[in-house]
Amino acid sequence: MGPVSARTTGQVRVVGTGLLGTSIGLGLTSLDVDVVLDDVSPSTLALAVDYGAGRPATDDDAPALVVVAVPPDVVAGVVAAELTRHPQAIVTDVASVKAGPLAALEAAGAATERYIGSHPMAGRERGGPIAARADLFLGRPWVIAPHAGSVPEQAAVLEALALDLGATPVRLPADRHDDAVAVVSHAPQLVASLLAARLIDAPDRATELAGQGLRDTTRIAASDPALWVQILSANAARILPVLSDLRDDLDAVLEALADPAARGAQRALADVLAAGNDGVARIPGKHGVDLKTTTLTVLVDDRPGQIARLLTEIGELGVNLEDLRLEHSPGAPIGIVELAVAPEVAGGLEADLVTRGWRIA
Amino acid sequence: MGPVSARTTGQVRVVGTGLLGTSIGLGLTSLDVDVVLDDVSPSTLALAVDYGAGRPATDDDAPALVVVAVPPDVVAGVVAAELTRHPQAIVTDVASVKAGPLAALEAAGAATERYIGSHPMAGRERGGPIAARADLFLGRPWVIAPHAGSVPEQAAVLEALALDLGATPVRLPADRHDDAVAVVSHAPQLVASLLAARLIDAPDRATELAGQGLRDTTRIAASDPALWVQILSANAARILPVLSDLRDDLDAVLEALADPAARGAQRALADVLAAGNDGVARIPGKHGVDLKTTTLTVLVDDRPGQIARLLTEIGELGVNLEDLRLEHSPGAPIGIVELAVAPEVAGGLEADLVTRGWRIA
Fold first, then answer.
1. What is the mean pLDDT of residues A239-267?
2. Is the CB of B249 less than 8 angstroms away from the CB of A197?
3. Contact residues on chain B for A329, CB-CB shorter than 8 A
4. Domain ranges, ordered by start, for chain A
């Protein structure tokens, strides 16, 4: 990231040197911030220190900011202990759920005026300090969740942390954060798992017909069950109504499928499909802007360098891609590249690519 | 596609000049096959002729092969009429469901010894002759569904057709085809729609936190409801058990979410997540081979030419990509490119890219 000066001032203490904690340490250390590390596991701590995420904590530390990066089921207890142990410090956590820890801290009479929750929307399929990267948070939203008892200056400290790590700060109260991730993250995780589970007993000939649709709808079903059980349990009350509504709609679908010739059955299926159209249209495009794009489909030979040549030529034409998707071609040496571009450049790009000999589908 | 000689011999009659029928006509015409076109809509037919998909049908036609490319709800009737009208021809259809039309033909006493069903696994979000492309089927599976009464030579005729259009022929009986698409295509479509529908009432702040997981799980929810109502209705009996099983698992999830501290609740959630792991592992990789790949995540500046430069360098290194994904970066000028490569080249590629100055996450 080069010699950039940090917005974060003072010492930062990171408690929990797994994927997130170690990544935070690596990012801050690269900006010459003084980072001290702690973990219940001496070997995990030693690994994070070896990776250069900071130095081991000592009794003489005087952190200005404590970042608690421990599993969801112990986060409130660790935050409370840190608030007591470092009475001058602001304490934050990075757990995937925010309302539960806050309520637990308030119930325990913790010094919540120095606590402010946060949640970097970043992760990897692998965990632990070995998987950590200083760049983990680059370009990702980092939710900062002020509460009634927190001071505005604390949110500014957290925003500085997020910006130092390349993330985009988003302020959102704890309950609204938890409502949001229930619908955009937790429910999709469970639905992908439920759908992918249908493939366990499918014959090979069936999965051989799998297209991009099946791959996309089930990709996140490969996530770590142990971590997700904790996340889902901690936000269960907010996921429940989302999936209950889905179940009600699913029941209508099942009824329609049981007798598709019955009065109203076609309408019931059409309603679900149309609602899906409306829902997916609400997902913003690149950079958080609700950008409409036009998709061009280009057919390329499946050998090294073909996609590079395509993208080089698109770059020469000065066109920026909003999205790109490489589609598999079961059994055939053909690649299908879907390019999403701004509508106003799509026509010209298609003509230019055809002129250059590309096959547009 | 260049001056390649067709495997298909004799005249081909295409009935229904929508997206699929017109695309078949365009592909065959480019190979100098004699294609005659028919459609209940004179204006749709005229459009397909204008696009170069073939010439209008006349009473003097003597097709060797008739391809019926009409909506699912009328396909059996049209196939029966064609079998009667052209007693020397092999008749196929391209509908997304295969068992229903065959049963209807047999029940009607049609000359099914000359009928063989097929299903090219290709489509676009737009329909009609204007959306048609000669390349539509390139690299896609084309299911050919022989039945007890069909003659082996007919499957060879259909395979020639599929190969002429660049598709990969896959032989599968009608009932097994319909079972397969129920689980790999129809159930995922409905599940994506049901999940996307949850976003309709989500606040903007929630959808702004959307990541690639939500985008992937809901992408196909943008499909055309009118077409899908027909497909789902025609295969309802085979989709029903898939989604009923999903509903049973969903009920277990809902029970666990309602009281995550109850005995067995954590286990219930873990079981669903682990089953998702097992299911997604059954999806074959590129080219229908169950290829294990290693993913490298590269951070690139979000400006024209960066991804092209990356892929050019990967091409220079002689590495073939198994998959590529460009991830959105809400609010930040950073692109995240996920490269899937064969495990044996991943380590060397990562080292080479770092040497060349790329940031690997």
1. 97
2. yes
3. 138-140, 286-287
4. 12-172, 179-254, 287-360
Closest Cα of chain B to A79: distance in Å? 22
Q: CA–CA separation, B336 vs B302, rounded Å? A: 9
The class of domain A12-172 in CATH terms is alpha beta
pLDDT of residue A124: 66
Top-level class of domain A287-360: alpha beta
Convert the pLDDT of each residue in B25-43 to its tens digit.
999 999 999 999 999 999 9
| Closest residue of chain A to B27, computed from CA coordinates | A361
Could you tell me where the DSSP H helices lie in chain A?
19-29, 42-50, 75-85, 99-107, 152-164, 174-181, 187-196, 204-207, 212-218, 225-234, 236-258, 265-280, 306-316, 343-355
| DSSP three-state, residue A109 | coil
Whole-model pTM?
A: 0.77
- Of the listed ranges A101-110, A325-334, B172-181, B210-219, the least confidently predicted one is A325-334
- Choose, out of B136, B190, B239, B245, the residue to mutate when testing the contact with A (most A CBs < 10 Å): B190
B222 CB near a chain A CB, below 8 Å?
Answer: yes
State the ipTM, two decimals.
0.77
Q: Is A10 left (phi over 0), alpha (psi -120 to 50) or beta?
A: left
- How far is B211 from chain A, CA to nearest CA, in Å? 8
The bridge status of strand A168-171 relative to strand B168-171 is unpaired
Q: Which residue has the higher pLDDT, B173 or B2?
A: B173
User: Higher model confidence: residue B4 or residue A149?
Assistant: A149
A126 touches chain B (CB under 8 A): no
Above 90 in pLDDT, residue B332? no
Higher pLDDT pick, A125 / A222: A222
How far are the Cα atoms of B236, B244, B247, B317 from residue A254, in angstroms, in the given order? Answer: 9, 7, 9, 52
Summarize pLDDT for A176-202 with one digit per residue, the tens.
Answer: 999 999 999 999 999 999 999 999 999
Distance CA B6, CA B138 (A): 15
Q: What is the mean pLDDT of residues A148-168?
A: 92
Q: Beta B141-145 vs B168-171: how paired, if at all? A: parallel
Q: What is the CATH number of domain B179-280?
A: 1.10.3660.10
Q: What fold is seen in the domain A179-254?
A: 6-phosphogluconate dehydrogenase C-terminal fold (1.10.3660)
Residue A55 to chain B, least CA–CA distance (Å):
22
Of B215, B219, B233, the CB nearest to A260: B233
Task: Give residue A278's pLDDT.
Answer: 95
CB contact (8 A) between residue B196 and residue A279: yes
- Which of the listed ranges A91-95, B139-143, B338-342 does the model predict with the highest average pLDDT? A91-95
- B-chain CB neighbours of A132 within 8 Å are none
DSSP H or E segment with residue B47: helix B42-50
Amino acid occupying residue B129? P
Q: Which pLDDT score is estimated for B125?
A: 55
Q: Which of B8, B291, B27, B15 lies closest to B138 in space, CA to CA?
A: B27
User: Could you give the CA distance from residue A233 to residue A72 in angstroms, rounded to a whole number?
Assistant: 9
Phi, psi of B12 (to 5 degrees): -115, 125
